Amino acid sequence: MPANITEEVSRRRTFAIIAHPDAGKTTLTEKLLLFGGAIQLAGEVKAKKDRINTRSDWMAIERERGISVVTSVMTFEYEDAIFNLLDTPGHEDFADDTYRTLSAVDSAVMVIDGAKGIEPRTLKLFEVCRMRDIPIVTFINKMDREARDPFEILEEIEQKLALDTAPVNWPIGMGKNFAGTYNLKENSVRQRDADTDAVKVNGPESDQAAGLLPANERDAFIESCGLARELCHPFDKKAFMEGHLTPVYFGSALKNYGVRDLINALADFGPQPRDQEADTRIVHATEEKMSAFVFKIQANMDPNHRDRIAFVRVCSGTLERGMKAKLVRTGKPMSLSAPQFFFARSRQIADEAFAGDVVGIPNHGTLRIGDTLTEGEDFLFRGVPNFAPEILRRVRLDDAMKAKKLKEALAQMAEEGVVQLFSPEDGSPAIVGVVGALQLDVLKERLSSEYTLPVSFEMSRFSVCRWISVTGMWSVNSTWRAISRPASNSG
Ligand code: G4P
Q: What is the C-alpha separation between 309 and 15, in angstroms, rounded?
């Protein structure tokens, strides 16, 4: 294999941040981007309503509601490493989008609010990571506020997530006395993350550590450092890579504590692009031939561009600008003439991308979620999940003259994965299916702003929609009869 590919792959860190809403994911994202030089000015994240400064927020609806509903991809360099940070919507109504995104990462940072501990959404997202054996680095945020006792938080993670914890740094105080972090292994103190280097000290009792705290808090800090060293798991890279142990960092994204520790950790021991399972074989990240899969489609990301971008995760080889790739689903070649790297709203043509990289490929509907691209070999990556819709609605159009336009717009939204579209065989109007109710709001907003189609929703005569798979002697028709008739009548 060419040395270049091996070297390039080893520099890549492709990860997502998982968190319960409000735990501080946006703030942490912003700080990571700042350290990576991807933005110049973080400013403290303001009230969510006017969070226009957070450049990963795209859509008006996001800003109005203060939730991240769109998955964005941000590429940035830090020291020798190249990070691809895949932002996931925190709200559970966008679970399908989040799960698809998690199929494209190699690790995850789990952000926990130090006062609240493990919250329901954290738990859910963690379970998805565990199913995929994604290694997790934990960041206990908001230590500048009154938080829980660090041991209590670690114990909660161990019990609720059945995951061993290995604290790497330890908070020096908390709340208004939070003074920084103490590295338990290296005996160093980091006060503010604007300073790149941590200061080596003689121990927790030194002036540069305990000395930063008011006199009445010093003994407790020294004792807790000692206990953490004695009682907690030491960091074990193998256990981390296998998803059994999480290194834990305490800090405050808002006040810049612990963030540098975290980004250094990802650069030092964060997993490089993993080998991927395809239907016929395992594809190694350092293979020479290019392969990639589509995990997200997004149209009209930039209203000025009116474009449609497929986000692909490169799994092996080098994706080069202008190369011809095979779209395995159709067997047809397609030219990758303008692959792009993304940083929230700004983008840049990608001349070459390696395993781990996420690039956007502009296209006119050729690429679909789950598609595999190769240099000719016939295999399919299997990782991108499908979801059964929980809510089914008919779309009611205010202006009947625009029915054709609506049909096209809905087809586009379905290809993007915003909604699922079902066309009844009797020719009655299409039904949209979503996993969470907020997705309907996004659909409505986007149809109105991007296609000037004001719509409303009506109840559908269907309430459940499921895929049926049949094995053995049964045919789909006989299964359907069995389902649609009462049991006594089946046959
Ligand atoms: P999210 O994306 O996970 O939903 O969280 P986000 O970063 O938006 O942060 C949620 C709130 O918590 C924000 O407050 C933010 O400023 C605050 N926050 C984030 N990290 C820290 C931290 O390390 N320390 C402290 N003290 N606060 C932090 P907000 O929306 O402006 O207002 P409010 O929710 O506090 O009222």
A: 20
Please, which residues bridge with residue 238 across strands? none
328: Cα within 13 Å, side-chain hemisphere: 22
Work out which ligand 1 atom sits closest to the CA atom of 29: 7
Give CA–CA dist 42/153, Å, rounded. Answer: 28
| CB 23 near ligand 1, within 6 Å | yes
Question: How confident is the model over 149-168, as pLDDT tens digits?
Answer: 999 999 999 999 999 999 99
* 216-237: pLDDT as tens digits: 999 999 999 999 999 999 999 9
DSSP 408-475: HHHHHHHHHTSSEEE--TT-PPPEEEESSHHHHHHHHHHHHHHH---EEEEE-S----------TT--
141 Cβ inside 6 Å of ligand 1: yes
CA 294 vs CA 5, 370, 456, 482: distances in Å: 21, 5, 31, 37
Q: Is the CB of 112 under 6 A from ligand 1?
A: no
Out of 153-162, 266-275, 362-371, which region has the weakest mean confidence (pLDDT)? Answer: 362-371
Q: Which residue, judged by its Cα, is nearest atom 18 of ligand 1?
A: 24
Point out the ligand 1 atom lying closest to the alpha carbon of residue 19.
3
52-81 per-residue burial string, b: 16 or more CB within 10 A, e: under 16: eebbbbbbebbbebebbbbbbbbbbebeeb
Calculate the dihedral angle through the C-alpha atoms of 326, 332, 334, 340, rounding to the nearest 10 degrees: -60
Cα–Cα distance, 324 to 334 (Å, whole number): 6
Backbone angles phi, psi at 257, to 5 degrees: -105, 135
Secondary structure E strands in 20-121: 73-78, 81-86, 107-113
Mean pLDDT, range 445-472, rounded to an integer: 81
pLDDT confidence bin for 135, thresholds 50/70/90:
very high
For strands 346-349 and 291-299, give the pairing. Answer: unpaired
Regarding the beta carbon of 45 and ligand 1, being less than 6 Å apart is answered: yes
User: Does position 388 have pLDDT exceeding 80, yes or no?
Assistant: no
Burial per residue of 457-480, b for 16 or more beta-carbon CB atoms within 10 angstroms, e otherwise: beebeeeeeeeeeeeeeeeeeeee
Distance CA 442, CA 391 (A): 14
- What CA–CA distance (Å, rounded) separates 368 from 29? 28
Residue with tokens 């004695």: 230
Question: Under a CB-based contact definition with an 8 Å cutoff, are residues 78 and 267 in contact?
Answer: yes
From 6-10, 80-84, 247-251, 409-413, the region with the lowest mean pLDDT: 409-413
Alpha-carbon distance of 153 to 99, in angstroms, equals 26
Question: Mean pLDDT across the stretch 208-221?
Answer: 96
Higher pLDDT, 286 or 413: 286
User: How far away, in angstroms, is 151 Cα from ligand 1 center?
Assistant: 23
- Tokens representing 120 are 């329901």
